[in-house]
Amino acid sequence: MELFTPDFGLVFWMFIAFIVLFVVLAKWGWPVILKNMDHRADTIDKGVEYAQQAKHQLDHAREEAQKYMEEAQAKQAEMLRDAAKMKTQIIEEAKRQAGVEAQKVMDAAKVSIEQSRKEAELQFRNEVSKFSIEIAEKMLRGQMKDDAAQIKLVDKLLDEIENN
């Protein structure tokens, strides 16, 4: 049981060692520990402050990004409207030009058809004249085989010329 109950001298020397250790720690140890703890607390406070500033900057950056996104969307919508207007203008211009070209082609076709008709009519007249002359020639040959018929025809033509 002696191990569990210390003597008075042992307790006294332990108390003296404790007081010496306490004085040494109080003079040199605790100020350093407290100084380090204060420095650590300041560092943590600054970190919290930096985090709050970073959060504020992030929120501000998000707001600016949202604003830029809205501006970009507005510009995109405006560009799409302008593109649609240009598309309709181009289509209308192309339709107008196609109409003008079609009218030119139709006018040229009408002129060509009219020229072809006139040429065909002239050719038809020439052919009819040629056939008429051939028919008349064949009829005259048949009628002019004898001298009496020739004299009769000449007299008839002379009479017609005198009457006119």
Structure report:
This protein has 164 residues and is an all-alpha fold. The protein has one domain (9-163). The chain has helices spanning 8-143, 147-163. The longest helix has 136 residues, at 8-143. The protein starts with 7 loop residues before the first helix and ends with a helix. The mean pLDDT is 89.
Radius of gyration, in Å, reads 64 Å
Structural class: mainly alpha
The portion of residues assigned to helices is: over 70%
Given as residue ranges, the uncertain stretches (5+ residues, pLDDT < 50) are none
The major sheet is characterized as: none
How many structural domains does the protein architecture include? 1
Secondary-structure element series:
HH
Shape: rod-shaped
Share of β-strand residues: under 5%
Number of helices: 2
Oligomeric organization of the protein chains: single chain
End-to-end distance: 184 Å
Count of β-strands: 0
Mean pLDDT: 89
Secondary structure: elements and pairs:
Blueprint: H1 8-143, H2 147-163
Summarize the structure.
By secondary structure, the chain is mainly alpha-helical. It has helices spanning 8-143, 147-163.
Notable characteristics:
164 residues; mainly alpha; 93% helix
